[in-house]
Write a structure and sequence with these properties.
By secondary structure, the chain is of the alpha/beta class. It is built from 14 helices and 6 strands.
């Protein structure tokens, strides 16, 4: 006869048997191990390559009305930048515009007839940049790249004039930008920590949500309801396995980031695991809370999909929170994913310590208490 140890109303012995049941179910269910291992591996390998925010091979048409030495140098500087591919030197602007309408060209550069004369005698010259903005991001970045090259060319010409005129004794200033925490401005360094969080949220949110709903459909939940097991013990037995899975998923993400991208955390890995433990506890509790209200697996999936997608867009994964409308920034405070995205980026890229992230930790602890408390109270157990 086994003895059940009671501690503050929670049967520790019953939790042990329930955990054994959960792990046996996972062992028999071949889907869960595959999802927990294959999904983060594939996602972290492919997503940073697919979600590429670097715009290259921009198709350029040039209308050179000047055909001078300076205009040729200008065109060569643009094409040698690596961002632009010169498709055509059009005879006129209408021809170049037709190329844009046919989706042959992305951006037009028109050089005026007096380009060289204006540079030499007026020390300034105007050029026209026309961008196809059907794809807003591509159009904006294309024009920004081209304007940067224009400014660089202007500074280069000015520097040559200053050096060639010995009468001018003008001090020169060289601006050397320093990009902290991401010196090469590689988008992968900001995407990879965020994708780690997304995988953690998807797996530790969806799987617990489908757990109780799946037992409802099979009828096994009724057998648990007639046992003397407390609601807290039952919810804990559902949380702990996915808490462990969360650590496995995060470890796989760290290995993939190191092997495929050579990326390691500047900060302490233990601190990341600490925040991940609280986040996993919070989001698994959220999934269990959803499962208490869903009656079928399809309902649980659709409800979780709605909330996870909403949380992801509010997290700052794709768009900085500061760029969102004011009301959206306020709503993002209620997204646990926002805090975890910032934590992973701050620790991984900046090496931030616990003190700098103490309010993030407090927020995640609040979400964990709130969601798990709601999950326990909303679970209807009949004796």
């Amino acid at each position: 006869m086994s003895t059940i140890i009671k501690h503050k109303g929670i049967g520790l012995g019953s939790i042990r048997f329930l955990l054994k049941k959960e792990f046996l179910q996972m062992k028999r269910n071949k889907f869960i191990p595959k999802v927990a291992i294959v999904l983060p591996f594939v996602a972290l390998t492919l997503f940073p390559m697919v979600a590429n925010f670097d715009i290259r091979d921009i198709k350029l048409a040039v209308v050179d009305n000047n055909r001078s030495t300076y205009s040729s140098r200008f065109i060569n500087k643009i094409t040698s930048s690596g961002h632009f591919h010169l498709v055509d030197i059009a005879e006129g602007y209408n021809r170049a515009l037709w190329l844009v309408e046919q989706d042959i060209v992305d951006i037009i550069l028109e050089i005026p007839p007096r380009f060289e004369e204006d540079l030499v005698y007026e020390q300034k010259a105007n050029v026209l940049i026309s961008t196809n903005a059907v794809n807003g991001m591509k159009g904006g970045l294309s024009s920004a790249y081209l304007m940067s090259i224009v400014n660089d060319f202007s500074a280069e010409i000015r520097g040559e004039w200053i050096q060639s005129d010995s009468r001018l004794n003008i001090p020169k200033f060289e601006i050397v930008p320093r990009y902290n925490f991401n010196p090469l401005l590689d988008y992968k360094y900001t995407m990879i920590p965020a994708i780690m969080m997304m995988m953690l949220a998807v797996i530790t949110g969806f799987l617990p949500a489908l757990n109780i709903v799946g037992e409802k459909e099979k009828g096994t939940i009724e057998q648990l309801n007639v046992t003397p097991v407390s609601r807290i013990a039952l919810i804990l037995s559902k949380l702990i396995p996915y808490w462990i899975i969360g650590f496995v998923v995060l470890t796989i993400c760290f290995i993939v980031a190191w092997v495929f991208y050579g990326m390691t955390s500047v900060g302490n890995y233990g601190l990341i695991y600490l925040f991940a433990a609280v986040f996993t506890l919070a989001f698994s509790g959220f999934g269990l809370m959803i499962s208490n209200y869903a009656h079928t697996v399809q309902q649980g999936m659709f409800i979780m999909f709605f909330f996870v997608i909403t949380f992801i867009f509010l997290s700052g994964l794709y768009t900085p929170v500061s760029s969102m409308p004011q009301w959206t920034q306020v709503v993002s405070w209620f997204s646990p994913l926002r805090y975890m995205v910032e934590v992973l980026r701050f620790i991984f890229l900046k090496g931030s310590g616990f003190f700098a992230l103490r309010w993030h930790f407090a927020a995640l602890c609040g979400f964990a208490v709130f969601f798990n408390g709601w999950a326990v109270l909303s679970y209807r157990k009949s004796h």
